[in-house]
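quick one, 463 residues, struct below
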Amino acid sequence: MREIPSCDTLAVDRSLTASGCNLFAKNSDRDIDESQPLIWFPPKKYPAGAKLRCTYIEIDQAEETYGMIGSKPWWIWGFEHGVNEYGVAIGNEADWSEIPPNDQEALLGMDLLRLGLERGKTACEAMHVIIELLEKHGQGGSCSYGGPVDDSYHNTFMMADPKEIWLLETVGRHWIAKKITGAHFISNAYTIEEEYDEASEGLIDFALEKGLHDPRRPFNFAKSFMLFHSRFLTGHLRGSRLAKLKNEMRELYRPEHLWAILRDHYEGDTIYSRWSPASASCASICMHGSEPGPGHTAATMVVEYHNSMHRELLFTYWASMCPPCSGFPIPIFNIGYVPEGLGRGTNKYDPDSFWWRMKRMQMDVECDYNKYIPLVREVQVELEAAFRTAADSALAEAENLFSAGKADEATALLRSLTDDCFARVNQTVRTLTERIEKDLETNAPEVYRARFIKNFKEKVGMA
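---
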């Protein structure tokens, strides 16, 4: 069982947002050499009796699956996060428990997440799809490429739709669920305690059997099942930081507030890195790889829901790749389209993969983070403001076009905006990479990061 300090998921219901609509977001933290393509999967229908091969096991296929935008580690069938055509968004988290994870191949948490999106029209329905499959097939199998079968964990899922937000926490085939109100942020540590809405049959008896509950006290899921071990508690630090940022919030949430949280490295706190986020001594919300467990933020999504009678305008999916502090969110809409360039990548450097071009630029920045990140942020602020204005304008125009029966024009408008934003980000990444690498020809990188970057580039063929 390997400790993987990974993932932070944020959900804010409409009572606390400036738009009056739900917000949902996630940083997906994975191995540093594992690309995470973003792909549109169209809806499909299947014949009765069809089978489905997930990452490790085969299960019964549904008669119909829904269209989805999915962010997936290149070698895994499932998703780290995504949203379907009905506006159901899901993100999962690794969790460690006093109950060891299954050491046999079963469904990965990422497989369960994708299955929930494929088969659920609401957050609650998707949650129960996951529950049914969890109870039937279990969860397990290596979560790292080429890793041992016991390199696995239990899973927590947060899911939203335009109306509701649900939290589902699991231990083996047992589970507990809570409907979320207000703002709720999670980081690799169970958060459901005494208050919950649903639970698996026999959950409390299971805790009693394992010596993890005393009937003289109220049942508390997190206290019963959480693994209290120093190697597996990085989620507590990030969870505490998220709680602090949430408690300091003094206005209604907008998407830019979630981006600020997702880019956080404990700035202004006592455990902020000594030299820069690239020299972090512990996992932060925006994660930068470091030995011995080189995990980093591989992809980020912010789902911004909208009040619209047209399904195509249910949400904007803002997508960014690699650590978001150096990323550029691209708006994607519910029109069955993601630029093909976002969907390429393996575990080796590929100049035709946007994910790998982003990773190259981000590693260049880390050669001297404090020197180069201002170059990124200057353009970041400019592009985000421009993309926000363009997206708001396009959504308003598309609303009128859909209402007038001009669906093709509305779809073309939104697709064109996504393509334009992607093209601008692509060019920005190329320009920044060239500028930083030219500077590095004559100026030495920071020595504390040099060996790590050199070894990484040699490993993936970027050198």
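The first strand starts at residue 8 and ends at 12.
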